[in-house]
Write a structure and sequence with these properties.
Layout lengths: L6 E10 L2 E11 L4 E5 L6 H8 L7 E6 L2 E2 L4 H5 L2 E4 L11 H11 L4 H14 L19 H13 L5 E5 L7 H16 L3 E5 L3 H4 L5 E6 L2 E6 L1 H5 L5 E8 L19 E5 L2 E7 L3 H13 L3 E8 L2 H8 L19 E4 L2
Parallel strand pairs: 3-8, 3-9, 6-7, 7-8
Antiparallel strand pairs: 1-2, 1-4, 4-5, 9-10, 11-13, 11-14, 12-13, 12-15
The structure holds adenosine-5'-triphosphate.
Pfam family, one: ABC_tran
GO biological process, one term: response to antibiotic
Subcellular location: Cell membrane
């Protein structure tokens, strides 16, 4: 255990019947750090954070929040951890201002400081027009996005050493997502350790320091976005858009004039990671495929973190969406070549 970790999870295992939702998971978060937790639906992300905040007991492993043993003493740990849960906060009958003030008061702020926090967060997240609008039952009164932003504001109303955010950008529009990401980064820059569950690999890349990729309960990769992209920093991504019901022209190695470092199928997209010196060959080949109408189109650009993430994780089950912004990632099949 490093004395400077604000959160340290070691060997965490949690089963539900025969499902091993967390299988020997270890991770650490230091002050000032945003650690992104990535994984498809059912990978075990919510199970992990439920244990961190004491809502679920592990079958094995340890969780330390600062110097507190969070498994033995969840109440003490919770004083150091703020959570924005995945489910929408029950706001019915409350205004966002009142909800944030109450959250601040519960965390020990004075009435005046809680009021100031609500006002400041309203501006920071651009939800001022709705601050005094009352939430009604069954989603009335406030939009899903404003509810989500209010839940974030409640979590950060008072500073805590650890901040756990479970998909904070769901339902939030693009402009306010930017504000939210900036607000998360600001909390870390002020000294908090942030554990961030997200499906939005591309956006998260800009604010996370480290990533932990979970697949079927196990950690399959950890490291900075640059490290996870790894060799892809000097690689290109050739994306082929397959025709509906068209054959995938990349499956027969003998007819592919490239040596892909990695091949990932995502719905009707095939992503090939290729060395940069094969750019010209790739354009010639993909251009010819399009000419012969074997593909709908193609693009060539720098390899991204999403490519690495898709290649690290197992295929999502049929029909399951991993919630990523691109609709074609709803069903993935990955293969190493
Ligand atoms: N209370 C429970 N009872 C039985 N099985 C559960 C329970 N909670 C989670 N699971 C199972 O544990 C596995 C991990 O689920 P978990 O909710 O942690 O995944 P997740 O990564 O948070 O998924 P999502 O992105 O959909 O939120 C899944 O197979 C899920 O069905």
């Amino acid at each position: 255990m490093n004395a400077h970790d604000v959160l340290r999870v070691t060997g965490l295992t949690r089963r539900f019947g025969s499902v091993v939702a967390n299988d020997d998971v270890s991770l650490r978060v230091r002050p000032g750090e945003v650690v992104g937790l990535l994984g498809h639906n059912g990978a075990g992300k919510t199970t992990l954070i439920s244990q961190v905040v004491g809502l679920l007991r592990p079958d094995a492993g340890t969780i330390r929040v600062g110097t507190v043993d969070a498994v033995r003493n969840p109440a003490a740990a919770r004083r150091h951890v703020a959570l924005q849960p995945q489910a929408q906060a029950p706001l019915d009958g409350l205004t966002p201002r009142a909800a944030v003030e109450i959250a601040g008061r519960i965390r020990g702020l004075s009435q005046a400081r809680a009021r100031a926090a609500a006002e400041a967060l309203g501006a920071e997240l651009d939800i001022e027009p709705w601050l005094d609008q009352r939430a009604q039952p069954e989603g009335g009164g406030l939009s899903g996005g404003v509810r989500r932003l209010t839940a974030f504001a409640m979590a950060v109303a008072a500073p805590t050493p650890v901040l756990v955010l479970d998909e904070p950008t769901n339902d939030v529009d693009a402009a306010r997502r930017r504000l939210l990401w900036a607000a998360v980064r600001r909390r870390a820059d002020a000294g908090a350790g942030v554990l961030l569950v997200t499906h939005n690999v591309t956006e998260a890349e800009r604010i996370v320091d480290d990533l932990v990729v979970l697949d079927r309960g196990r950690v399959v990769a950890t490291g900075s976005p640059a490290r996870l992209r790894g060799t892809q920093d000097s690689a290109l991504r050739l994306e082929l858009q397959l025709a509906p019901d068209g054959e995938d022209p990349t499956t027969d190695d003998a007819t592919v004039p490239l040596t892909p470092l990695r091949r990932t199928r995502a719905g009707r997209r095939v992503l090939l990671t290729i060395p940069t010196d094969q750019a010209a060959a790739a354009v010639t080949w993909a251009g010819a495929l399009r000419e012969r109408e074997r593909i709908d189109g193609y693009s060539l650009g720098p390899a991204t973190l999403e490519d690495a993430y898709l290649s690290l994780t197992s295929p999502a089950p049929d029909g399951a969406s991993d919630g990523a912004p691109e609709p074609t990632t709803s069903r993935t099949e990955s293969a190493h070549v």
